[in-house]
Amino acid sequence: MGEIHYARVPAAEWKREIQKMRAGGITIIATYCFWIHHEPAEGQWDWSGNKNLRQFLQVCKEEDMPVVLRIGPFCHGEVYQGGIPAWIVEKALSDPQNYKLRSTAPGFLAATRRLYEHLFAQAKGLLWKDGGPVVGIQIENECSGPWSYLMALRETAVSIGFDVPFMTRTGWPKLNGPEEFGKLLPLYGDYADGFWDRSLNDMPGDYPKAFTMKEQRINANIATETFSKKELTEGGSNSKVNGRRALTYPYLTCELGGGMMPSYHRRINISGNEAAPLAICKLGSGSNLLGYYMYHGGTNPYCTDHTMAETQDSKVTNYNDMPYMTYDFQAPLGEMGQPNLNAFHQTRLLHQFLADWGDMLSQMDVDSISEHYARRGCFEFYNDYVRLINEGGRAYVRPVDMPWGGHSITANAQPFCKTDNTLYFIPIKGMEPKIWIDGNEVIGSKGKGPRVNSSFHLPHPSQTKDMEVTLLSEDEAIRSFKIDNKIYVAKKAGNIIYKDGDKIVEEEWKTQKKLSSRKIKRVKEAGEPRIVPMGAQKAAAMPTDEDFENAAVWHLNIKGLPAGADKFLRIDYTGDCARIYADGKLVMDNFWNGKPMLVRMSDLEKKTVELRILPLSKDAPIYLQKEQKEIRDSSPSPLLQLDGISLLLCRHHNKTNKSMQKKRTKRKD
């Protein structure tokens, strides 16, 4: 399951981005329905453009993609006031008895009911029972209770018509009192790092523990779940299956860190190597659903009244200062739909394994488990990678006595996929690739063929066509996509191959050229770097609009540059923060963490474009990772430099109907 927020992605791109998510192995979409996006003023509803939930659900139906709606009323999602509109907050402040937020206060429940009614009107006829995509809803989010409040929301949703297969909540907030078993399915999560942490150090607290196998489902980095033994077991605490306690809640996740946002005070730089190890640890620990937050980044809707992002100064969710516009999240698919190559492809290879062997894995118990190792049935899971601490570590799955076609397969290689009579494997870093069939080494130092790019054939016991075991090279694996039981190979590593109707499309991202100095004119030098104050929540406070009057300013001449939805500017800079304005309107912003800022050319066309960058002082109380900290500390003056602006293109090519098998045969010939 992968999170994408329809209101943060242009409607014209929904279909393509869902198709790309499927290419990455996503089989369920989760999406927040932010109340503040749809009812900014009381009684004034907006379902237009990117906020057209019904159209989004119809696209999901056309693409045969199930959906879990996260309907609030509180969502968080780093949105202003957690998605609760300002008019509701004002009522709660003036009349707390009737409008106390996230409570059974009658005014608040009545307003929430109206929200649910409007959401249901958007989803009516598109629930799973109607042949639609909506398979579940999440009630509230990050809520500690009381349980009566959550049940009031559930009853409201059901009475309105949200009759769906399952209803969920995030399972990790510690509840304020007992709950009734079986009413809301808890879903869990884990993150490699957190922008909300107040520490200015690498990997503080328990973040390293996210990269370990563990029997409990929670991690103290986000919160703690509390269930009694009776609540967790079938028939009470004495119930056991195969000698182990029988958990009646399936182990599902909805917030497994697909990336992480930088906040102003904590500039996390995600490499993308974190997502697959996190997922492998969850699978080894017994999870049967990998749910990523986020899987696809986005951009906040523009609002003239206030930022649509979380801030320290707001009345609700005032814990962190976030960028006004960007919500890239360094996710497997970024804000513009660009693949973050490590996260996208590493998880994609794992997801393809789950697509082809998940029916077996879901029936397998965790037979043994330790910090780095777990075994479920015939699959071994291993991870010793830890972000920033042991980035040379490995994360992998390997089969031991895995049944296939009347044979037993063991491999020092990771299963990738299977097509008809062929099994494909990929190498494991630092391990000599070997494959044994019925105890006989058939690929490896003693087996037939080289250690990679090799195949072994054996007769099928009941069919005329031979069975084949194939070990791909790492490059072939990254370039290979399974679609309709065929393997398609991308022209280069990093490209995405996806299905669009009857067409097979290959997407390529390419930096075309740097803008010449004639198109970039510096019109104002920066003033002295600001003294960064501490905000209301005791974290470094982000700059205000007035602070940006002290920024360095460039005018960008984009005349003559290619226009269109698939063209972007890539801005490489160092400094504190950057903003792009088009005709005076803010269209993109960025907290510097070592990565470039992207902006859509479609937001800039035929407009006066201005870039502003604020300098960063050496004593600013913010967290930077080692590489960025070294850049700042080695600068002889406050850090501020525009390193270059490039044109970034996204191209789409129709592919011919050639599978990998045909390509491999041609190469042999």
Annotated CATH architecture of the largest domain? Alpha-Beta Barrel
* Helix fraction by DSSP (H/I, runs of at least 4): 10-25%
Biggest sheet: strands side by side, in what order?
1-2-3-4-5-6-9-11
Residue fraction in strands: 25-35%
Average residue pLDDT: 92
* Count of helical regions: 13
Shape: globular
Q: Ends: how far apart?
A: 41 Å
**CATH level 3 topology of the largest domain:** TIM Barrel
Our Rg estimate from Cα atoms comes to 26 Å
Determine the structural class based on helices, strands and strand pairing.
alpha+beta
Unreliable stretches (pLDDT < 50, length at least 5) are 228-245, 659-669
Q: Describe the main β-sheet briefly.
A: 8 strands, parallel
Number of separate strands: 38
CATH evolutionary superfamily of the largest domain: Glycosidases
The CATH class of the largest domain, by name, is Alpha Beta
Number of domains: 3
